[in-house]
Amino acid sequence: MSLLSIRNLHASIGDREILKGINLEVNRGEVHAIMGPNGNGKSTLAGVVAGNPKYTVTQGEVIFKDKNILELPVDVRAAEGLFLGFQYPVEIPGVSITNFMRTAVNEQRKYHGLDPLSGAEFLRLMEEKKKVVEMTTNLANRSVNEGFSGGEKKKNEIFQMAMLNPTLSILDETDSGLDIDALRIVAGGVNQLRSKDNAIIVITHYQRLLDFIVPDFVHVLYEGRIVKTGPKELALELEERGYDWIKKELGE
After folding, report:
1. Which of 105, 176, 190, 221 is the most exposed place for a label (fewest CB within 10 A)?
2. What are the residue ranges spanned by the domains of the chain?
3. Quick one: fold of 4-249?
C-alpha cells in the first residue's frame, strides 16, 4: 500500500484550473523530485496536499496512510505526519522558535494520545535536532524567521522537520535563494532525516539540489499534469535540454 496516492487530482483557484489530473504514488523510503517550468502547478500540488484553503479541489482524491486527507483540516493533516517546507517561510514576530516548536511538538503528541514533553525533555530533543542543520543557540532563541537570511529560514524549516519527524515531507523549492554552503547544510539535514519509514517529495527547478538530495524518481509536471517520470538521470537531461523537448514529445 502506498504511503501517498494521488489519483486524478484536479484543483483550481477561482475559475482557473491549475491541476488537471495529477496521478502520483509515493512509498515509504522513497524520495521523489518534481520539476517543471514556472506556473505549471508544482507549488499548487504541494498546497493542495497540505490543505491550503485558497485552492478548490474539483475532482480526484489524495490518500495518505489510507485516509482521504482532502476531508481533513490542515492541523489534522500535520498531526497525521504531513510536513510542508515553504518556498517563502513566513515571519512570526514575538514568538520564539523554542516556544513555537514546543507547542507544535506537544500538540502532535496530544493528537496521538501521548503526554507532553517536560521542559527538560523538550530542550534535550531540541539540542539534538539543532545539530541536523548546524543551528546556533542564538538563532533558536529568536522569533520565528524574523530578520532571518534566506539560508537561516531554510535551515529553520529543516529543523522543524527534524523536530516533528513527519512521515511525508514536501519541500517546496527548499534550494531557492541558497548559496552553496547553505544548500549543503540544508540538503545534509534532509539526508539525515531520510529513512525507510518516511518519504520526501522535493519540488525544485534545478539539478544542483539533486546532486545533494538524490531522488529515486523524477517527475516532470507540465500544464497541470505529470507528463514524464524517470530515474535521477532525467533531472540531468532537463538541466541540459530545458523543457522544450518535453513539449515536442507532447506534440506541442
Report:
1. 176
2. 4-249
3. Rossmann fold (3.40.50)
